[in-house]
Amino acid sequence: MTPKRVLVTGGSGFIAGHCILQLLEQGYLVRTTVRSLGKEAAARAVLDDAGVTQGDHLSFVAADLIRDDGWVDAMADVAFVLHVASPVQPGHVENEEDLILPAREGALRVLRAARRAGVERVVLTSAFHAVSWGHPHMDHTFTEKDWTIIDGPGVDAYGKSKTLAERAAWDFMAAEGGPMELTTMLPVAVMGPVMGKDISGSNHIIKAMLDGQIPAFPDVFIPIVDVRDVAAAHIQAMTNRDAAGERFLLSSGPTIAMKDIGATIKAELGEAAWRVPTRSLPNFVVRLGAMFSPRFRAIAADLGYAKKMSSEKARRVLGWKPRDSREAIVAAARSMVRKGLVKK
Question: Among candidates 186, 317, 310, which has minimal Cα distance to 243?
Answer without folding.
Answer: 317
